[in-house]
Design goal:
CATH architecture of the largest domain: Beta Barrel
Order of helices and strands: EEEHEEH
Structural class: mainly beta
Number of domains: 2
Radius of gyration: 18 Å
CATH superfamily of the largest domain: Nucleic acid-binding proteins
CATH topology of the largest domain: OB fold (Dihydrolipoamide Acetyltransferase, E2P)
Number of strands: 5
Strand order of the largest sheet: 1-2-3-5-4
Number of helices: 2
CATH class of the largest domain: Mainly Beta
Shape: elongated
């Protein structure tokens, strides 16, 4: 299911998305709470999962920003966030093919306009992120 299609509480959904934020909180009960923010580029959602054992905590450590994951769970209104949250039953890492430049060599064209964190305009990425992306694209 695409994230943009989630408009209300759902008993069971399976979504795939890119992790752009990760937080692990230690709870007073001794358990841990994993909070992920994911996007499938149609929309975004917060994913929460409580640890049940050391295996869950090891999985939490193995997930990182920049990973693609597939999540199965229920969507419910969260009292703390005051928004819909995906409460995960299962989280699995998946591999997603990166975008490829398929234009013929003599027809390639690149325009790049950006604002770095040194700009007076709003910017969220350091210049190193843009350099890495340009390198991936073959520049």
């Amino acid at each position: 299911m695409q994230l943009v299609d989630i408009q209300d509480e759902e008993k069971s959904v399976i979504v795939q998305g890119y992790v752009f934020d990760k937080e692990v909180r230690d709870l007073r009960s001794g358990r841990k709470l994993l909070i992920l923010k994911i996007t499938d580029y149609s929309s975004s959602i917060v994913v929460k999962k409580f640890s049940r054992d050391d295996g869950d905590e090891a999985q939490f450590d193995g997930l990182n920003e920049g990973d693609w994951i597939k999540v199965r769970g229920s969507v419910q209104e969260d009292n703390f966030m005051r928004d819909l949250v995906l409460n995960a039953y299962d989280i699995n890492q998946v591999s997603v093919a990166s975008r490829q430049d398929t234009a013929p060599e003599d027809e390639k064209r690149v325009e790049l306009h950006l604002h770095t964190t040194m700009s007076t305009m709003d910017a969220t990425n350091p210049i190193s992120d843009y350099v890495k992306q340009a390198k991936k694209m073959g520049s």
